[in-house]
Amino acid sequence: MAKKSITRRWMTNNLGVVVLALLVIELVVIYAVQSYFYSSAKQYLLSKINAVTSMLSIHSQDSSASFSAEMRSMLETFNEKDKIELMAINSRGRVVLTSSGFSPDEDSVMPDYEAAMESDSGTGTYVGKMAGGEKIMAVSMTISSLNSEYSSVRMVTSLTEIDYTIKMYIIAVAVLSSVIILIIVMAGLYFAGSIVKPVRQISAIASQFAIGDFSVRIENNSDDEIGELCTSINHMADELSAAEAMKNEFISSVSHELRTPLTAIKGWAETLMVDGGEDRETMQKGVGVIVNETERLSQMVEELLDFSRMQNGRFTLQKANMDILAELGDAVLIYSEKAKRENKTIIYDEPEMLPFVFGDKNRIRQVFINVIDNAIKYSSEGDTVTIKAYEKDNRVVVAVSDTGVGIKESDLAKVKTKFYKANHTRRGSGIGLAVADEIMQMHGGTLDITSEGEGKGTTVTITLPAKSSQKT
């Protein structure tokens, strides 16, 4: 099938309507001009023939004058004989006198005369062609009441000059219409081109995006809707490029995170196979490493599965009334020994009591573990992690602060974005905080991250609705 371009559609639809409208206008103008000129000529002939009949009426009342002589004299002295031919028609319907001196053929058709004889007004008009092809206008008026010898007077004028004038008007209107159409076509093509060109550019660049090339951008030279579209697509390309970079970084990070424990497991498994378990201390150390690294792998896989479930909308919660302090205490206990081994300090300011929370205890504990793990991970030897829990405005607040590497101000808004890692020197997949933030939102809570800058530590504040403020 032929390609249907915007320009062709515009030419077919809009221009067709414009041409049709101009054609209708031109026909109306032609009809109006012709009617005006023909009507003016008719009125002029009627006024002249009325003047003639008035003069004849005066002569008919003078008994001393010969009506035929007066008629002949009037035709001979008719002052517009160069434009109009005046005729006298006898009672038998024959033209007996003319202002030009030439009598028409006996078989000449005179529809205006016949109409005048049949009309109550005694007047008839005719527009048509003579035997020679010349177009004329004729007007007849009966005078039989003035003299029995004559039945009517008739005036005939050529329409050649009038038709020529009308033709000039038609040509002028046609030229004007053509100029208008030409202007519309040129303006339309320019306007369509201003749309088609960027659309084609957008289409070509979108094809580049489709194959994964986000380096190209659309040239934007307008500030209208097309310009806004170009800006939006360029912004989309920036976001896609950033997302692609984060995805690649995520794949690299996950690959590294998976390779490290697998390498440790494989190394100790080979060592134990060679040693055969004869050295009990080596056996215990190796099995301990294998168990710890296996647990680490399991956590990473579970984190990836949770993220996948969230992306597919299959992430569910098993909510019930829960003791938030119990889950927080378990998370702190899990990382206390790890912190000691890495010469880091965990300070847990545990309150005596907090309101219950309606939520999924396993998911809430997962959030606590993720946040505390990040605090330790992004802290250096000798740093401190402080954990506080309290109630404020009928909401339970858990704040985890560290004195670690901190976060740049430019990265704060992105740290909860999937795949994003503010610090590439520390291990992690870049989806832990994204999962934690999603869990908090599903519980009607919030996860806020603040930092005074690099090297000044980070504070993560988890807020959950207390049981009394949440619907079950």
Q: How would you describe the overall organization of this protein?
A:
With 472 residues, the chain is an alpha+beta fold. The chain has three domains: 6-165, Beta-Lactamase; 225-310, Orthogonal Bundle (Helix Hairpins); 318-469, Histidine kinase-like ATPase, C-terminal domain (Heat Shock Protein 90), CATH 3.30.565.10. It has ten helices and twelve strands. A five-stranded antiparallel beta sheet has the order 2-1-5-4-3. Helix 1 (6-60) packs antiparallel against helix 4, helix 5 packs antiparallel against helix 6 and helix 6 packs across helix 10 (432-442). The longest helix has 55 residues, at 6-60. The two termini are 61 Å apart.
Blueprint of the fold:
Blueprint: H1 6-60, H2 67-76, E1 84-90, E2 95-98, H3 111-118, E3 123-129, E4 135-142, E5 150-158, H4 160-210, H5 225-275, H6 280-312, E6 320-322, H7 324-341, E7 345-349, E8 357-359, H8 361-377, E9 384-392, E10 395-402, H9 409-412, H10 432-442, E11 446-451, E12 458-465
Parallel strand pairs: 7-9
Antiparallel strand pairs: 1-2, 1-5, 3-4, 4-5, 6-8, 9-10, 10-12, 11-12
Helix pairs in contact: 1-2, 1-4, 4-5, 5-6, 6-10, 7-8, 8-10
Judging by the overall fold, what is the CATH architecture of the largest domain? 2-Layer Sandwich
User: How widely separated are the two ends?
Assistant: 61 Å
Number of helices: 10
Overall pLDDT confidence: 82
Shape: rod-shaped
Q: Tally of extended strands?
A: 12
DSSP strand content: 15-25%
CATH superfamily of the largest domain: PAS domain
